[in-house]
Write a structure and sequence with these properties.
Helix content is 41%, strand content 13%. By secondary structure, it is α/β, with parallel strands linked by helices.
């Protein structure tokens, strides 16, 4: 039986997330990419729904997040927003829409906000994209940062291994986190870094940290919906906890349907006009 005591009626905002951190209330975040799943997740009391560029993997079958376009992200975000009432909806800015060009970054972020009605954008990187983040923030668009393992940079790193295990990279991550807070980001995702470092970062800044593979010392957690529901069984990292086995449930239901059609059992007289 669920022990969820979340206030499901009060709308989650960027300011509310900061309030949650101040009082020690953990933040629950999950990805979604379509209206129907977003509606179910929102009704359950989710705090933040991330329209992730992980749609590239779980929706489009790509091996990396890089192929996602701005138009595709806007399409997914628009669908999610329509199914959401309570959760804060954050949309990933896809690869190539903000790195190295602050003007293009602002144009891309404005399109996301105007066309999808998402409430914030998420961007991967620290000091190297500072100018783009500042340009977007100057337009009044909330930005969620993302440090540690940054999947859009997979070809640079060449691996999805844990980041910031060495002192130099860890210190840069801490400096980047403080910089993101200083310039006005409202929250920060920490992906696949040592738990002790994630806790240290979380205690060093006043904005919420959302961890994925970063231990329990962050202010919240995020997982990819398809992974935690057991729809995608081909991805089993150490940090993933599966809360359902929907791939088996769906396969069984579809097999049952096929059998009923083949045998003529479906539709029966009560299912016919």
């Amino acid at each position: 039986m669920s022990t969820n005591t979340v206030d499901k009626d009060r709308k989650v905002t960027t300011m509310r997330l900061i309030e949650m951190k101040r009082r020690g209330e953990k933040i629950a975040m999950l990805t979604a990419y379509d209206y129907s799943m977003a509606k179910l997740i929102d009704e359950a009391g989710m705090d933040v729904i991330l329209v992730g560029d992980s749609a590239s993997n779980v929706m489009a079958g790509n091996t990396t997040t890089l192929p996602m376009t701005l138009d595709q992200m806007i399409y997914h975000a628009k669908s999610v927003v329509k199914g959401t009432q309570r959760a804060l909806v954050v949309c990933d800015m896809p690869f190539g829409t903000y790195q190295g060009n602050p003007i293009e970054a602002l144009t891309s972020a404005v399109r996301i906000m105007k066309e999808s009605h998402a409430e914030a954008v998420k961007m991967e990187g620290g000091a190297e994209i500072r100018e783009s983040i500042e340009r977007i923030l100057s337009a009044g668009i909330p930005v969620m940062g993302h440090l540690g393992l940054t999947p859009q940079s997979i070809n640079k790193f060449g691996t999805y291994a844990v980041r910031a295990k060495e002192d130099e990279e860890a210190e840069k991550l801490i400096a980047d986190a403080k910089m993101l807070e200083e310039i006005g980001c409202f929250a920060l995702v920490l992906e696949k870094i040592p738990a002790a470092l994630a806790k240290r970062v979380s205690e060093a800044i006043s904005i919420p940290t959302i961890g994925i593979g970063a231990g329990n010392g962050t202010d919240g957690q995020v997982l990819v919906m398809h992974d935690m529901l057991g729809i995608n069984k081909g991805f089993s990292p150490k940090f993933l906890r599966r809360y359902a086995d929907l791939s088996t449930v769906i396969n069984s239901a579809v097999s049952h349907y096929i059998d009923d059609v083949k045998t003529g059992d479906f539709p029966n007289p009560s299912e016919s006009y």
